[in-house]
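user: Here is a favour to ask of a fellow structure person. I have my own habits and do not want them to colour yours. Could you put it straight underneath, so I can go through it closely?

assistant:
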Amino acid sequence: MALKLSDDVKALVRGANFAHLATLMRDGSPQVAPVWVDLDGELILVSTGEGSLKAKNSRRDARVGLSIVAMDNPYREAQIRGRVVERRPDADFKTMDRISRKYTGKPFPFRDNPAQRVVLAIEVERARYAVLPFVHAPA
């Protein structure tokens, strides 16, 4: 059942904040990868290559988890569970370039295997947003 995202979660996804995407291996063990994310309505987008573990795992089992941490305050976070509901071809790098510009200010530099580019569209089923009362001050 799809969830309408809160404005706080949407702000984290729209910002240039790193996320960690968890997928399930064939044996049920978790696999986690840092990813860039973007938003399309209520769907969270992750661009990748079809040969990546995240693409292979989500093709077999669409269930995923995401954690997103704000770059300006690592104690502002979202924890998300959902499923990949669409796999959008991105051979022209339209989505990947938009996401890359958000994070780096430049188009995505790796242009090999354009036919293998895919955007995973994740429908959110559960989301938790929190701001913890800490100040990030490493020694």
User: Anything to note?
Assistant: Residues 7-129 form a domain with the Pnp Oxidase; Chain A fold (CATH 2.30.110.10).
